Amino acid sequence: MTQEIIRPRRLLPGGTIGIAAPASPFDQVLFGQGMAVMESRGYQTRCPDGVYARERYFAGGDRQRAELLGQLFTDPEVGAIICARGGFGSMRTLAHLDFDRIGQHPKVLVGFSDITALLNVLGDRCGLVGFHGPVVTSLAETEARTVGSFFDAIASERLVDMVAPDGRTLVPGSVTAPLAGGNLTTLCHLTGTPFSPAFAGKILLLEDINEAPYRIDRMLSQMRMAGCFDDVAGLVLGAFSGCGSEDDLSAIVEDIFGPMAVPILSGLEVGHGPVNLTVPIGLTATLDADGKRLFFHEPATVLV
Q: What is this structure's pTM?
């Protein structure tokens, strides 16, 4: 059931950013460099011991990763949470999360790729606005605009406003609705589970990396047949790096979504690309496909 939207508390100057590892293990060098980026801005970081755990291709056991995330939400000294890395594993923590506990302690949660599962499910179950943005390891090697967008979204009152000057208007029009979505592969794998996100009445954001065009088509076709896109309000595409040509992607998307007659814009700098701008998941935005723009009407965080 979709909850009332809760904007989390703003990260204050000098505040503490907690590190969660709900998915895969991470490169220690990149991790250290990403931590340094946050600390260079004057923020403290808190890295629980469990972050460094290893179990097969996960950063620890499923229950352990879920419990670590829950502890960060309830820790009164932690002002925001960023995930160490994506990869795989976030969906395996969902059955072990205490949604009531998290909903009573709403905080900024940032990540992308596999973290898409957490951002959308916490939105549906707790009403919490999440932040589709960098992880610690990606902060190490990203462009300045990614870093600036990250801190603007979680630590300032600026309104998130994105323009895709090189984007494509696949279907013209404008719509105002809450934003949902993120990584296509992760969302597709949630289909048919109790945690499959609800997209009806929402602007759907999709991005991915290293998926052949036929696989993109297969995932979108499956989700369409499962009813995932019924009554979607609009579609905005982020980066699809290594996923075939832009013409290939446009043809697939127009085939799947065209009959829905909703605004569609491609080319937003979100996801697995050189620039990964931070965007609030769950917050109401306006998609102006003709103007190649996605913008929000209120800050993504609040001062309490």
A: 0.96
